[in-house]
Design brief:
Mean pLDDT: 93
Number of strands: 5
Strand content: 5-15%
Helix content: 40-55%
Largest sheet: 5 strands, antiparallel
Low-confidence stretches: none
């Protein structure tokens, strides 16, 4: 009976000091008392908590935590920054990944956030070597589609200060650089797709 299963789980969790799931279990208990049944999704959630409370479930969680820390944390951080820059999806999970070094998302959360068609592109872009090295002289593209903060620098030269400042878009060439435009007192951020190589023509000079 679901009522007995819920009560047992609540008792087990409270006895072990594992209170994270208790509010949800309590809400299931209240719903069951009121309606006499659980929905399909509620039943599936209850079964999942029961499994994770078992020896096999605890072993699975421990193995995943080790795998995540050894293999997946960097990808999770890249994807978390992408979603924090493009709200509202995965906000809570992404925030925890970026602010709590001990946080480990569930495997389902990681797969959903970091293995979808958008973050697959973001991750692939993050693994591609930068097109321009630190110290390179580049030219900001003279194009209408530039972000507003770059309009003043259209067609102008700049030096690459950093070429690995994260990725906040799934577009190709979305790697963020910091640039120091010639004649400008401070650095600006710019995506790789908005700059190009500068080849000085013979006899040409630039201030």
């Amino acid at each position: 009976m679901a009522k007995n299963r819920i009560e047992k789980l609540i008792d087990d969790k409270e006895a072990k000091g594992e209170t994270k799931d208790v509010p949800f279990l309590t809400s299931l208990q209240t719903w069951y008392v009121k309606s006499g049944r659980l929905s399909e999704k509620q039943s599936a959630a209850l079964a999942r908590i029961e499994y994770l409370n078992s020896d096999a479930g605890r072993e699975e969680v421990e193995e995943w935590q080790q795998e995540f820390s050894a293999t997946h944390r960097k990808r999770a951080q890249v994807c978390a920054r992408y979603y924090l820059s493009n709200p509202p999806y995965f906000h809570d999970v992404a925030t925890n990944i970026m602010t709590n070094s001990d946080f480990v998302p569930t495997r389902r959360q990681f797969e959903a956030m970091c293995k979808n068609k958008y973050t697959n592109r973001v991750w692939a872009e993050s693994q591609r070597p930068p097109a321009y090295a630190k110290g390179d002289i580049i030219k900001v593209r003279d194009m209408q589609q530039l972000p507003y903060h770059l309009y003043h620098f259209r067609g102008k030269l700049a030096m690459v200060v950093d070429n690995n400042c994260g990725i906040t878009t799934h577009a190709i060439g979305g790697r963020i650089y910091t640039l120091l435009p010639f004649g400008h007192p401070s650095i600006v951020e710019c995506q790789e797709r908005h700059i190009k190589s500068f080849k000085k023509k013979k006899g040409e000079q630039h201030e």
